[in-house]
Specification:
The protein is mainly α. The protein has four helices and no strands.
């Protein structure tokens, strides 16, 4: 029986993880599609340019995401040596991101004209800021919802305890009344 419960729990958790993975992939695809759309509008890409631009941009964003999300940007330390290490890691990630940009700028130059190429990195930075801001807002909304759920759960628990206390009080009152009646009945 324990094996069956364990197996069922494992299957549920695995299914949940796969669903989360699928949701993340869907979200990544929607974000990428929105980025492409914004780039197309801002850079005024022709259909031919867009057809050549998208695969390069896909590779570029994939590499940039790997580099920029490879570590926790929010880490801090009270120890100066540890904080120096954290800052150096961040600077190394930024350096690696610049290397990726340098690598891909030649590929983009084969697709984009000079004006579009000048606007590309500026537009990319603006889009990244928007995505990061919305991501932060989404995290804040999730945190607020989690706190609200926790508050509701605590309210339900307090209400349940209050009802239990009221039931116990009524039960005690009934017992006292019963004792009083028994005492009155037993008096001649």
């Amino acid at each position: 029986m324990k094996k069956i419960i364990f197996l069922a729990t494992f299957i549920i958790l695995a299914t949940s993880a796969m669903a989360d993975d699928q949701q993340n992939k869907d979200l990544d695809e929607r974000i990428f599609d929105a980025r492409v759309k914004q780039m197309s509008l801002t850079l005024q890409l022709t259909e031919a340019q867009k057809a050549r631009f998208v695969p390069i941009y896909q590779r570029y964003t994939t590499e940039m995401r790997k580099v920029l999300t490879s570590a926790n940007h929010e880490r801090q330390s009270e120890d100066a040596k540890q904080q120096a290490i954290i800052i150096k890691e961040r600077l190394n990630r930024q350096k690696h991101a610049i290397d990726i940009q340098s690598k891909y700028i030649d590929e983009f130059a084969q697709v984009l004209d000079a004006k579009q190429l000048r606007r590309f990195l500026e537009t990319e930075r603006r889009i990244s800021k928007k995505v990061k801001m919305r991501s932060s807002e989404a995290k804040a909304r999730k945190l607020i919802k989690k706190e609200q759920r926790q508050a509701r759960k605590e309210q339900r628990k307090a209400l349940k305890e209050q009802r239990q206390a009221q039931r116990e009080l009524r039960h005690q009152q009934r017992l006292q009344r019963r004792e009083m009646r028994q005492q009155q009945d037993s008096k001649p």
